[in-house]
Structures are given as structure tokens and as C-alpha cells.
Amino acid sequence: MQKVLVLNGPNLGRLGSREPDIYGAMDFDALTSAVNAKATQLGLTAEVRQTDSESELISWIHEAVDTGSNVVLNPAAFTHYSYALRDAAVQVTKSGLKLIEVHLSNPHTREEFRHNSVISGVATGVIAGFGVDSYLLAMTQLASR
Ligand code: DQA
């Protein structure tokens, strides 16, 4: 069974109470349940994790490379400035695995600093702006190949 690491960066553990006008009312536990249900439906094994730590997120990307897992990644604010995370992400795609960058909101409709992603250039693809469906679409894509 294909294993997918669904990795989430800083402040995403605050979903539900954090800016619900932008990120919606769903909390992180509900997002995790929705992703796990989709994985079951698609015949994938998903492991959903969240951290506020750049170092921990990078270690999980290394783990994906070492265990041959595809990755769905919401890098949160690290999207916009973490070259260290980009250097980790490129190891995923260069090893023949997939890394799909996802966002709940569409960063291009928001503040200018969110318009640039240092991750997109090394990702397999990017899905943004569909709330939790961004994750579910990414899972569907991984299952289709
Ligand atoms: C986000 C968008 C980022 O700009 C922001 O820093 C986040 C969440 C999203 O899912 O829409 O924390 O990645």
C-alpha cells in the first residue's frame, strides 16, 4: 500500500480558531480525519503530522526520502522563506517520489509576501485555495498514478 506523509507547518495546529474567515472552521483533528477517510477510500496509508518547528519538518521530509513515501506538504509560512525546507523538498522529487504543495487559502489573493513560494519550484505540483479539499485533491492525484 502506498504510504503518504501529510506534513503541516507552523500554526496549522491552530486551525478552527485561527483566522476562521481565511482558513475555515475545521480544526486540525477534523482535517486529519478527512484526510485519513480519503486515504482509506483511495487505498492509501496516510500519516498526518503538524509541527511548528522547521527542524522537525525537515527531519520528516528526510524520513519520507528514506522510507520511499510520497509527501503532501502544507509548509504554512515556511513556504515563503525557508530555503532549508526547499533543500529538503528537492531530495524528495529528485529521488523519484512526489511532493505536492498544498494550501488551504490561495496565497496569491493575499498579502504580497505570500505570492512567492520557495517550495513550488521543486514540488511535483501545487494545489491551493480549496480548503481541506486541497489536501483531498492531492491524495486523489497520488492515488491515480
Ligand atoms: C497557508 C498559507 C500561508 O501563507 C500561511 O502562512 C499559512 C497557511 C495555507 O494553507 O493557506 O500558515 O499555507
Structure description:
The model has no long low-confidence stretch (mean pLDDT 97). The protein has 5 helices and 5 strands. A 5-stranded parallel β-sheet has the order 2-1-3-4-5, with helices on both faces. It is 39% helix and 18% strand. The protein has helices at 20-23, 28-42, 54-67, 83-94, 132-143; strands at residues 3-8, 45-50, 70-74, 99-103, 125-128. It has a single domain, classed as Rossmann fold, CATH 3.40.50.9100. With 145 residues, the chain is of the alpha/beta class. The chain starts with a strand and ends with a helix. The structure holds 1,3,4-trihydroxy-5-OXO-cyclohexanecarboxylic acid (DQA).
Mean pLDDT: 97
Please state the CA-atom Rg, rounded to the nearest Å: 14 Å
Tally of discrete structural domains: 1
Report the sheet-strand fraction.
15-25%
Main structural class: alpha/beta
CA-to-CA gap between the ends? 13 Å
In CATH, the architecture is 3-Layer(aba) Sandwich
Explain the layout of strands and helices.
Blueprint lengths: L2 E6 L11 H4 L4 H15 L2 E6 L3 H14 L2 E5 L8 H12 L4 E5 L21 E4 L3 H12 L2
Parallel strand pairs: 1-2, 1-3, 3-4, 4-5
Bound molecules: 1,3,4-trihydroxy-5-OXO-cyclohexanecarboxylic acid (DQA).
